[in-house]
Amino acid sequence: MTVGVLKEPTSETRVSLLPEHLATLKKWKVDALIESNAGASSFASDDKYAESGAKISDRNNVLSNSDIILSINPLTDADVATLKPGAVVLGVFQPLFNASLIKTWAAKGLNVFSIDMIPRTTRAQSMDVLSSQANIAGYKAVLLAANKYPKYFPMFMTAAGSIPPAKMLILGAGVAGLQAIATAKRLGAVIEVFDTRPAVKEEVMSLGAKFVEVEGAADASKAGGYAVEQSEEFMQRQKAKIAESVAKADIVITTAQIQGRKAPILITQQMIEGMKSGSVIIDIASSTGGNTELTKNNETVVHNGVSIIGNSALAGDMPSDASKLYGKNVLNFLQLIIDKEGQLHLNFEDDLVKGSCMATNNEVTNDRVKALLA
Ligand code: NAD
User: Fold this and answer.
1) Ligand 1 mean position to 261 CA, how many Å?
2) How far apart are CA 209 and CA 353, in angstroms?
3) pLDDT of 262-318, one tens digit each?
4) Among 73, 96, 18, 112, which residue's Cα sits nearest to residue 362?
5) What is the pLDDT of residue 225?
6) Ligand 1 centre and the CA of 73: distance in Å?
7) Which of 34, 117, 155, 174 would suit a FRET pair with 149, their CA atoms being 20 to 30 Å apart?
8) Is the pLDDT of residue 222 over 70?
9) What is the H or E stretch that residue 354 is in?
10) 237 phi/psi in degrees, rounded to 5
């Protein structure tokens, strides 16, 4: 059996597998076929892949000779037309925003696995690409803010005068938010944090940040590790509290997301107008609409001297480690669908295989995607 790795679109710096991951495929008696230059933006050359036992080929060859195709981003129509019948495609396809694409792929007879949809259970942690990539995004968001911010993060008492510490506000203490707290703390910022999940309060405090509580959030304990939408009344009370913290903050990092929905607006234009000139907002929820009224995805908006940077692709700014962790997540998942003889074995009794499968046997299988199509 052959696993093929595609070169991603030009906007993507990551790659599904690095040369270091190929030894595991070899151990499973699985061949690796890599599109030429697939790893170039992650600093993995064709020679390195070849030294690790892979064959290097052009895109058409990879598509037409692979049983499992790995591509972080969705394939094009031309790609799909070139695939082997019944091939497995595995990537981060955001099916809740791309339901019609899943329908098209189902009709072509593909087995579509979107690893971003894997159930967030303990067993799935080693395959959780959302977590591995969000961790990087949280870290990079703080570094980006530190670069843009025209002042120091840490407090200094020097002969030339005193510098107060930067005040940071973090909205959303999920994987990215927690990593942002840890990184900003190391740089000496003073940090306040909001999240709708009270369970996260202890983690926030143990990282040395202040958790600002707003009572009465909707219970998300049954949402499989994701946040849920809040009532209008809660959002109003939360906004009033957030406004107080925004007015004091020099840097805001926003990470609040709700799976399959538009991101909640937590910061209004009026709040931004109350911030000091030179302040910085990094919105990593920008690809799903952003957490501020002024966010534009993949753009920096400057409003009254406040820079609002909308970037949900920060993991791609650290492509070597992002690909290293993504590739390990992928290998852990492949172990579920490749048997001891190195053959494809799709066991839909396994909740992780079932949960991440979007289409098989010419049908869309995921209930939420089906509901969107209906
Ligand atoms: P996410 O990226 O979907 O959202 C980021 C954060 O925004 C979440 O903490 C969420 O509660 C918060 N948020 C949503 N709406 C908000 C609002 N209106 N105001 C303030 N905050 C809001 O989440 P994520 O980082 O992918 O994961 C969240 C949590 O899920 C993790 O911290 C973890 O506890 C759990 N998780 C479990 C597993 C697992 O067991 N396999 C894996 C990953 C995450």
Assistant:
1) 13
2) 38
3) 999 999 999 999 999 999 999 999 999 999 999 999 999 999 999 999 999 999 999
4) 112
5) 62
6) 23
7) 174
8) no
9) helix 351-356
10) -65, -40
Burial class of residue 23 (count of CB atoms within 10 Å of its CB; 0-12, 13-18, 19+): exposed
Residues 102, 181: Cα–Cα separation, whole Å: 36
Q: SS3 of 188, please? A: coil
The torsion angles phi and psi of 238, rounded to 5 degrees, stand at -65, -40
Question: Which residues participate in catalysis according to the annotation?
Answer: 120, 125, 128, 131, 226
Cα 207 to middle of ligand 1, angstroms: 17
CB atoms within 10 A of CB 288: 20
Tell me the pairing of strands 161-163 and 156-158: antiparallel
Tell me the per-residue pLDDT of 43-96, one tens digit each, with 9 for 90 and over. 999 999 999 999 999 999 999 999 999 999 999 999 999 999 999 999 999 999
SS3 116: helix
Query: Which residue is closest in CA terms to ligand 1's atom 3?
Result: 257
Tokens of 29: 């008696």
Kindly report the number of other CB atoms within 10 A of residue 200's CB atom: 18
| The pLDDT of residue 367 is above 80 | yes
Q: Whose Cα sits closest to atom 11 in ligand 1?
A: 227
Phi, psi of 118 (to 5 degrees): -60, 135
Mutation pick for ligand 1 pocket among 175, 192, 265 (CB with most ligand atoms within 8 Å) = 175
Strand, helix or coil for residue 292: strand
**Contact residues of ligand 1, CB 6 A cut-off:** 120-122, 124-125, 128, 130-131, 134, 171-177, 194-197, 225-227, 230, 255-259, 264, 266
